[in-house]
Structure formats: C-alpha cells, structure tokens
Write a structure and sequence with these properties.
Elements (H helix, E strand, L loop, with lengths): L1 H4 L2 H8 L2 H12 L2 E2 H8 L3 H13 L3 E6 L2 E6 L2 H30 L1
Antiparallel strand pairs: 1-3, 2-3
C-alpha cells in the first residue's frame, strides 16, 4: 500500500513549509523551471533546489532535466499518502461519533 511506502508524516512535514507549499501550488497550475519558481519566491536557485529535493522525496513534485533547464511538475503520488491518512482518521472519527450517538439514543 502507498501509505506504508510513503508515510503521510513526511508529506505533511514537507508541506509545513510555506515556500514548499508555494512551489507545489505553482507547479499544480503548470510545469515550471527552477528559475521561474525562484523569481516570485525571492530565493536563490540553490534554495529552490533544496526545497525541490524535499518535495521529490515525498513524491509531491517531479523534476526533469533537459539540457540546462530543470522543469518541475506535480507528482500526485504524495497526495495519495495524505488521502489515505485522512480517510483512516475520518473512519475512526465516524466510529466514535456513531458510538456517541448510540449512547445518547439510550437515554
């Protein structure tokens, strides 16, 4: 299962940084080069590359190099881990609420 291979904690940690969230949001609209990402963020190419490494390890972003240009695209695999975690939490909350409803109905 994807969640076992990619813990949701790593994905949430990666998205905990506002710069990385901005990168994910930008590449979710369209592929972008590292230079195009660095400009609006006001950070160096090296800093963008470091953020991209974290996002790539969590499978939120993919990068591909063609010549001297590294292009970044969204990778949906990391979102699968988050969806799995959210679904597991929701199921637990629903069970608890159902039990609470049962207890309240007894009165």
């Amino acid at each position: 299962m994807m969640a076992a291979a990619l813990p949701a904690e790593r994905v949430f940690h990666a998205l905990g940084d506002p710069t990385r969230r901005a990168i994910v949001e930008r590449v979710s609209r369209a592929p972008a080069s590292v230079s195009a990402l660095a400009g609006p963020l006001g950070i160096t190419l090296t800093a963008v590359t470091q953020h991209l490494r974290v996002l790539e390890r969590c499978k939120l972003v993919r990068t591909e190099k063609a010549g001297r240009v590294r292009t970044c695209t969204l990778d949906p695999a990391g979102f699968v881990a988050m969806e799995w975690w959210i679904a597991e939490c929701r199921a637990g909350w629903e069970r608890r609420l159902d039990r609470l409803g049962d207890v309240l109905d007894e009165d």
